[in-house]
Amino acid sequence: MIMGLTGGIASGKSTVSAWFVNKGARLVDADIIAREVMLPGHPVLDAAVKRFGEGILQPDGSLNRAKLGEIVFADKEALQALNAITHPAIRKEIKARMHALEEEDPRRLTLVDIPLLYESELDNLFERIAVVYVPREVQRERLMARNGMTEVQAESRLKAQMDIEEKRRRATFVIDNSGSPEDTKDQVDELWDRLGL
Ligand code: ADP
User: Fold this and answer.
1) Which residue's CA lies nearest to atom 6 of ligand 1?
2) How far is the centre of ligand 1, averaged over its atoms, from the C-alpha of 183 (Å)?
3) Domain that holds residue 22
4) What's the pTM?
């Protein structure tokens, strides 16, 4: 069984996905795939160099993330161009991995953790999506505490994403992580049973 997992920044996705894995789910992690396509030798990195120049590479040929970040965060068109290069490859790889795991053992849960699942319009890959939800104020507090950010910095990160209330509306299942970790863990157990796993 395949299920997408998403949420907002600092809503508790990593915490929740670790619990699912503990219970026996297999994980496809979109963040890891996104990093893999930018490793030396990958055609996606080559295409990015072609578009943005050798300046986005370190002397050893690996990606200079800070440099690429500078380019795309100052320029909407550049960001769109980068997404047009990376997104199709990431989407293809996510699909390939989740279907391979599903074929191996369809009764087991294959959990696909994608932080920007809705923003990247990947929701059409899934019949069921769990959203890890906390109200925006809690999201901001936890983000400030975890990343040592000021309120202004946290707000600007939150503004760059789809509103968490909208994600909650679109979800098949909502895991409310605004209470204690134990409360959340109970919801994971409940959902596990509800899915018949
Ligand atoms: P995400 O992966 O969605 O960005 P994390 O799982 O890293 O979020 O959680 C964000 C922060 O909030 C972390 O510092 C984590 O330890 C903390 N946290 C997660 N769940 C809870 C909870 N139920 N109560 C208090 N703090 C929590």
Assistant:
1) 12
2) 13
3) 2-194
4) 0.94
